[in-house]
UniProtKB/TrEMBL annotation:
GO cellular component, one term: endoplasmic reticulum
EC number annotated for this UniProt entry: 2.4.1.141
UniProt protein name: UDP-N-acetylglucosamine transferase subunit ALG13
Location in or out of the cell: Endoplasmic reticulum
Domain Glycosyl transferase family 28 C-terminal, chain residue ranges per copy: 3-156
GO terms of molecular function: N-acetylglucosaminyldiphosphodolichol N-acetylglucosaminyltransferase activity
InterPro entries found in the cross-reference section: Alg13-like (IPR039042), Glyco_trans_28_C (IPR007235)
Keyword flag Protease: no
Pfam families reported for this sequence: Glyco_tran_28_C (PF04101)
Record-stated family: Belongs to the glycosyltransferase 28 family.
Entry annotated with the keyword Mitochondrion: no
Organism per entry: Oreochromis aureus (Israeli tilapia)
Catalytic EC class: transferase
Keyword terms, alphabetized: Endoplasmic reticulum, Glycosyltransferase, Transferase
């Protein structure tokens, strides 16, 4: 069963949870062959019921000690743009779609998502463009993120955040 795992990390990103569980988004996922949607909703006030998405099997939880198993079982990871969440999904070799919270001030997450996209490691969008991105995305263009190179990652983060 093709599975999508969505994570908001430790934050509250209700707009992402509402967007991914919309009828349009779940239809787009179903059209791509996804049958199972697992949501990690964090501290948000939105907690969809298991029967709230008629097009797809839905599970939701707030937090776990580790989401590594959820990531490893997913065919696609959809994440907020937090560095830790992005690195965990990329480190597991998963196709990653990052949804940037464009309502944040001083959005360094957008800079990180843009740089990882330029380097072909992920796709990114906002909540307002999520459904269209799900309909048109080409995951075959993504390149694996090189594992185990902390110096390279530190340099990458410096570059992405404009420090160097």
């Amino acid at each position: 069963m093709k599975t999508v795992f969505v994570t908001v990390g430790t934050t509250s990103f209700d707009e992402l949870i509402e967007s991914i569980t919309s009828s349009e988004a779940t239809q787009a996922l179903k059209a791509r062959g996804y049958e199972h949607l697992v949501l990690q909703v964090g501290r948000g006030s939105v907690f969809p019921a298991a029967d709230s998405c008629p097009h797809i099997r839905l599970e939701a939880f707030r937090f776990k000690n580790s989401i590594a198993e959820d990531i490893s079982q997913a065919d696609l990871v959809i994440s907020h743009a937090g560095a830790g969440s992005c690195l965990e999904a990329l480190g597991a070799g998963k196709s990653l779609l990052v949804v940037v919270n464009d309502k944040l001030m001083d959005n360094h997450q957008l800079e990180l998502a843009k740089q990882l996209h330029i380097d072909s490691h992920l796709l990114y969008c906002t909540c307002s463009t999520l459904t269209e991105t799900l309909r048109t995305m080409d995951l075959s263009v993504l390149q694996p993120f090189p594992p185990g190179q902390p110096k390279k990652f530190a340099d990458f983060m410096d570059k992405a955040l404009g420090i160097k």
